[in-house]
Write a structure and sequence with these properties.
This protein is mainly α and about 25 residues long. Helices cover about 90% and strands about 0% of the residues. It contains one helix and no strands. The N and C termini lie far apart (about 35 Å).
Amino acid sequence: MTAFLNYRSNTGKYIYILMTLKHY
């Protein structure tokens, strides 16, 4: 369970970074 949440958190950060880079 903890590993799953950690995976989701890392994936969310990665997607957020990609979305931010797309805007610039």
